[in-house]
UniProtKB/TrEMBL annotation:
Active site: H267
Protein's UniProt name: L-lactate oxidase
Binding residue positions for FMN: 85-87, 114, 136, 164, 243, 265, 298-302, 321-322
This protein's record includes keyword Flavoprotein: yes
Length: 371
């Protein structure tokens, strides 16, 4: 008997992908993922920022040999794209981070594991043992705990530490408040804490029901200083990236403090509403830091042309966020792989049609600002 395999086929367009994910996911979960903080001005600004720039293509160039690979932290990656750290992927699909990390590795792109992952960083590293993993740190209040998380990441083969600096508390997310939804309530983001020896020691003797309360107590450090960043460097010999940098003066301080890279980001419009769009501030940041540290950007990356614009304005690579999460919800690991295939094809076509055959050829000369 001939077995007809129903091939998984996710929608190509981001808007359609989001629509189908909305139909599939629980309303509160979808709202939590999709929404921004406040009036969502920053969420919208991220989207709008890309529309302000138009590509002026160069023709009569040779694009017969195309290459979208690039090098980040000394490692060749298949495209200038990293998987943004997203907490609690278990709310989108039971395989959560294990599926996404494996998909990232299979496609030759780095995976950044969140502190609030549903699975532990060790399980994620094992799932993506042949790929590149980075660890995102939500700086805990307890330095010993910070050290433990970072050293575990180092032992598990993570290649860089990304410290998120824009979340000293959660943004004012109106939709979540209406829904009475808190990411912490579900207990889906405790993969790393549940197995951490320092945390386990901390809660010993306490009521297991208080686990979440204890975790929240140590979760946010509201006074991270440059000394704390230096402390993390002492914990493990790994490159350090700061995620959530928007002010050029902070970018300059990052450079002066010997940080390896920054991620220009407003957390996908989920933290400070009213904050500048990451793409809008990118040129000013590039101006102060030059080529001395790696610049990554996220917020609103949906298609190949978004990547071309971000790189032309000075980013070395971008982080890809919500779209992969919707793909995970709809199709697990295969869904994410398919979405990445589409994104990479789109990028290659966009570059070729712009007249560029390599990532290094993308610069501001290709852009026109539409005010
Ligand atoms: C559901 C969700 C959870 C997130 N969790 C984290 C996290 O744990 N750590 C972090 O640094 N950023 C987190 N972010 C922010 C992303 O890393 C990234 O900055 C943002 O999604 C980029 O915007 P985009 O989704 O519009 O592309 C989260 C974003 C979403 C949508
Ligand atoms: O929702 C988020 O944006 C986020 O970063 C987060 C913070 C704490 C727990 C889970 C996710």
């Amino acid at each position: 008997m001939v077995q007809v395999l129903q091939e998984l086929s996710l929608p190509i367009s981001f808007e359609e992908l989001q629509q189908q994910a909305k139909q599939k996911l629980d309303k509160k979960v979808f709202d939590y993922i999709q929404s921004g903080s406040g009036k969502e001005e920053t969420l919208q600004a991220n989207d709008h920022a890309f529309k302000k720039w138009k590509i002026i293509p160069r023709y009569l160039t040779d694009v017969s040999k195309r290459n979208i690979e690039t090098i980040i932290e000394g490692e060749k990656i298949a495209a200038p794209v990293l998987f943004a750290p997203i907490g609690m992927q278990g709310i989108s699909h039971p395989d959560g981070e294990l599926a996404v990390a494996k998909a990232a590795g299979n496609k030759g792109l780095p995976y950044i594991a969140s502190t609030v992952s549903s699975y532990s960083l060790e399980e994620i590293a094992e799932a993506n043992e042949n790929g590149i993993n980075w660890f995102q740190l939500y700086f805990p209040n307890d330095l010993e705990l910070a050290k433990s998380l970072v050293q575990r990441a180092h032992s598990a083969g993570y290649k860089a530490i990304v410290i998120t600096v824009d979340t000293n508390m959660l943004g004012y997310r109106e939709r979540d408040r209406d829904n009475r939804y808190s990411p912490f309530k579900l207990g889906k983001g405790i993969g790393n804490y549940a197995v951490d020896p320092v945390f386990i020691r901390k809660i010993q003797g306490k009521n297991p029901d208080d686990f979440m309360e204890e975790m929240i107590k140590v979760f946010y450090r509201q006074n991270i200083s440059w000394e704390d960043i230096a402390y993390i460097r002492q914990c493990a010999d790994l490159p350090i990236y700061l995620k959530g940098i928007l002010h050029p003066k902070d970018a300059l301080l990052a450079k002066e403090n010997g940080i390896n890279g920054i991620i220009v980001s407003n957390h996908g419009g989920r933290q400070l509403d009213g904050a500048v769009a990451s793409l809008d501030i990118l040129p000013s940041i590039k101006e102060v830091v030059g080529d001395e540290l790696t610049i990554l950007l996220d917020g609103g990356i949906r298609r190949g042309s978004d990547i071309v614009k971000a790189l032309a304005l000075g980013a070395d690579a971008v982080l890809y966020g919500r779209p992969y999460l919707y793909s995970l919800a709809l199709g697990g690991k295969e869904g994410v792989e398919q979405n990445i295939d589409n994104l990479m094809q789109d990028l290659e076509i966009t570059m070729a049609l712009s007249g560029a055959s390599a990532i290094s050829e993308l610069n501001q000369d290709l852009l026109w600002e539409n005010n």
